[in-house]
């Protein structure tokens, strides 16, 4: 990381292709890519093995069994049999330009048995699934910057998204409950779940909740096919393993032998099961199997026994992360102990809204869950087709031969539609276990570099919490320090729910399995007592803490020895040789006082956890710490804050707790906190340089700032993310002065000559796709229409550089179905210039030809456009002021922007005042000023530093200058603050039209609906009283609901005219006729308010007809 910024764009090597990519930028897409690579490496195989085989019996008595095996997701390539293709690979840029999906084939094998005899497996293609860019299945993976550029990608491309129908779609990062850890929760809504239920429970993220019942018992909630079931905990234990009541009693009472409350509750639980006539392991399984037989009828064969059904339910719904039933019992026992401690007040409720109890749902993992669910549905669909085929041929017995199976396989739909719809819409088309099923994907908007980067680090709490009235889920708690940025969150309804990861926060991937297997052995060697050891059976556990690894109880350790074990384990973790360096070591100490968190040593190695680097002071090395373990560590920010014997870690930098965008704010420590939040939002709305490949872009809309400059006052993080490659603002000379009165209420005056020289000049790049209606249609110029000869080429497409005005021809093609030429016209209200014209190729003969036409619309600053400084000071361009009428300095400098000084006191943006001085000093001395926060102190202030630099250059220490009036040339009797500020032009540009009501076609009211201020009766009376009645036609007609309607002059009706279309063979055009008068009618167009047409239609519904009398226009 660079410690100070520099003018990289002045180096001789700036702009040259680097040999390797920026490592920091590559971390943006790393969590997304790692999760998808897990799918490719082992996740898909594990998901297929976990699928339930489908077994059923045919009417002829044959027993059929299906299962899937040996799956592979291939890289994108052209379809088999394509002619004339030299390179079989398909690259993302081809899909972007042709509005196609970047996808690869999913190949798998169907294994099947007939009466227990395995048949020859069938290789099957399950459709083409979207591939994540830069994953191991993408052709861009491991390419050098030069190779990426040769394939029309950016040199710093970091991937992590999907290309779906030409758009870059990103799966949201969702915060969810930490997996494999029982969390103590108090939730009042639980009281009404069942009789005697309390508000206390232990949650385990496999949809298991152990509820405390007020009669001293506990019930385990399981979820099967979105239905909730509550089962006594002892019944679950008896179903899992054949153990005695004495064993259950001893296990639950371990460590609590003297607690009479524990003893009474355990006896009640045991007595409750016996009262239901369940006494043994077989009784429990029979009871559970009979209860769920109806529920699993579509999942298991009809001949499945009660024990098999019970085993299936327990495997699918109870502690599903554990394969061993004994491990499940150990965890359930621990949950019972924790629940009873919570009920007694011995431990505190933890809750799921704190970051320490959360992790992230990654895109690749969600993609895999959906894919697994669709494969299971594919097997069920195949079974349904075969059974239906058997029922249709009752007279003739049809054997399931390989030929018959192949025939039925053709009738089963592929997985491609479901996966593509999920990524294109963000809606889950299945009932997988996720907290929300809508809004899971977003478009990776590339308005500018800041906006694009922020999408990959954004984490959302969930749309469910957006509708809640409580603020608990929105609160920023202390345990979020270093993981969630406290600055970068939007204002409004998503505030506190849509957050962003700090710049050094890392999302873990799957660790080395061999290192994870070593952990139990290492813990035993460091003093842990394993559960199955003879010593543990004879040792009192009252002074011992539980040791848990990824939700599996390993053993216990004495509270006096646990500190040394943690220290030694942390040294092994830092070295990363015997245990993973992403191991999270959360030591909750045992304390004598009540109301603390449930004690224990909790270890986590799983993926999707948030971790961040800090300096381990004992090892003098970088260590990754997690959200849970950070709460019990003492971390200092600077060496001076460390306390010997207490402080264990130190931050690697003072800005490590901020996100990427927050680190780009110049000196945010000198601003009022809301201003920093505003800048994080306005920085993402700035016109800039979104890409370097404008000539091949096919985006619907791209904003481009044509005259960007590199800021002279910027933090070091600016260079770390290579933001000079994607300029986003302009250095403007600013005079802080109240001048002319047009700068009140956040308005500002801009030098007209500066705008003419290119200040804030920008354009919008738009693209339109024109697709032919049929495969035998073709693009061509109509030889009979001479008006389009100078606009279109012989192929019916426009020349690059052609000016497009509203209604001008954009392309022409011959419609073979209608047997005539069709001209597509330009519909925009602003003039455009054709940039590129591309014909999009297709790999299938059934696809129609389409053309992409890209054009630019010039958008120079105009009155009403919005500008903002990087300190959150936004303003509206109120007037373009002539340069000769603006004040000027002694050296002849005329300001580009006149800023009202009243904007400083209420906003308290001291950083902008410092930037005025620092920008001027940087321009004079020729070097960049460092804007990294926390570099200055109260004794050594930034203002003093910049003031001294200005004095050395011969300017006033305070940054003020004498200025002369541009009107009469006299010196102004004031010291005017004058300097350079980096200004951003926001994409919110003024427009003459806005949202309109769909019924009345009049402008809507209210900012929430995208409307403005309505012009009502009082405003009308005000204009009339001033004698300006003609302005009413502009306000109430031309700028409201002016529209052209057809009226019959003969009968005066507004509803009678209609468009009569002649037969194609007659070769006649279209003609307006009147339903009342027929051919005798005279239909003309009249400009009317649309609300009048609406009134006429409403009156007609009441059998009242309104007629109009038309006169010739004088």
Automatic annotation (TrEMBL):
Domain DNA-directed RNA polymerase subunit 2 hybrid-binding span(s) in chain numbering: 662-1009
UniProt GO BP: DNA-templated transcription
Source taxonomy: Eukaryota, Metazoa, Ecdysozoa, Arthropoda, Hexapoda
Alphabetical keyword list: DNA-directed RNA polymerase, Metal-binding, Nucleotidyltransferase, Nucleus, Transcription, Transferase, Zinc, Zinc-finger
Compartments in which it is found: Nucleus, Nucleolus
Keyword Transport recorded: no
Any single GO CC term annotated in Swiss-Prot or TrEMBL for this entry: DNA-directed RNA polymerase complex
Top-rank taxon: Eukaryota
Protein name as catalogued: DNA-directed RNA polymerase subunit beta
Record carries keyword Translocase: no
Source organism per UniProt: Frankliniella fusca
Family: Belongs to the RNA polymerase beta chain family.
Every RNA polymerase Rpb2 domain range: 178-360, 443-507, 1011-1110
Subunit-level organization: Component of the RNA polymerase I (Pol I) complex consisting of at least 13 subunits.
Molecular function via GO: DNA binding; DNA-directed RNA polymerase activity; ribonucleoside binding; zinc ion binding
Catalytic activity, as annotated: RNA(n) + a ribonucleoside 5'-triphosphate = RNA(n+1) + diphosphate
Function: DNA-dependent RNA polymerase catalyzes the transcription of DNA into RNA using the four ribonucleoside triphosphates as substrates.
Enzyme Commission code: 2.7.7.6
